[in-house]
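Could you join me in thinking about how sequence relates to backbone shape in a protein? To get us started, please write out a protein record for me. Would you write everything just below, so we can both look at the same thing?
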Amino acid sequence: MYVAVKGGERAIENAHRLLAHERRGDRSVPEVSLDQISNQLGLAVDRVMTEGSLYDRELAALAIKQARGDMIEAIFLLRAFRATLPRFGSSEPFDTSKMQVRRRVSSTFKDMPGGQVLGPTFDYTHRLLDPALMGEGSPEQPNIVAEAEPGIMPRVTDILGRDGLIEPSPLENPEQPVGDLTRDSLSFPADRDLRLQNLARGDEGYLLALGYSTQRGYGRNHPFAGEIRLGEVEVEFVAEDVGFAVSLGSITLTECQMVNQFKGSDTEAPCFTRGYGLAFGQSERKVMSMALVDRALRARELGEDVKAPAQDEEFVLSHSDNVQSTGFVEHLKLPHYVDFQSELGLLRKLRKEFAEANETPTPMQEAAE
């Protein structure tokens, strides 16, 4: 709590009460429930869970409600709560090839094993406001239960991999520990596991802008959406008491595999390369942007020239976190009276010295004359 000025503590307490009043809004309007937020503002909840690094729809909905719909503030609240939780261990790596798919599209193959599954998406809607959604008297839509596609759908990148047309996916190395940005600070150069963690927690709008920049030529990579899939994936955890992996349930994930061109080198034959994105819930824009930036950040690894912002590892990773960015920007709202008065005094002194050196009367002298 900031109490550096006289009366500051009382003013801040009043500000808290006013914030609670504004958050509730008109008392004649029913208060929005967490279930309503979770079910009807599901994409907002998915973003807060992803960038808040905590899969809990109820808590994410609570954060959105408390933050009055400010996504970054809600992400901040969820991360702060996450920091208080005990950690029992790490889950086994997700096997997204066994995802119970609700949506799965590819821009590289029209006909592929399992087919295209359009699922719930804005892609084919007319961007027109729907008056039927206004008010409680709007007609109810039929109850449609979205069922996951049965069986396992092979990844498009696996199809390309069988013919050696795309670089192989990195092999799992159980002996190499995976980094954890929530415990250790980021350092450079960063391995890909840390880069992907950083991008997953990074601000969606920031990654979208960087991904867009690579498409406009600031990165020189021509991407194809190899596959985007949405569905439920089982979470497994190795319990020490039993000695084997047990299922904790399933969570909803969105995964994107970008296919990018690569001309090859003196030692590598030409082939496609990969960009990867993974996020909680239905977060297609996020994972696509993440995959574009992931590929751009692999420039040095692939022997490419680093010329664009999206290829600069330190620039991208150091500025991606919206909570950290918010802290640096919004702290400017706090009192800086002493610092400013110091700068103001210095500026007046410099201007006086400049005027004396140039024998030019100061504005105050001119006014006196």
Q: What stands out?
A: The chain has a mean pLDDT of 86.
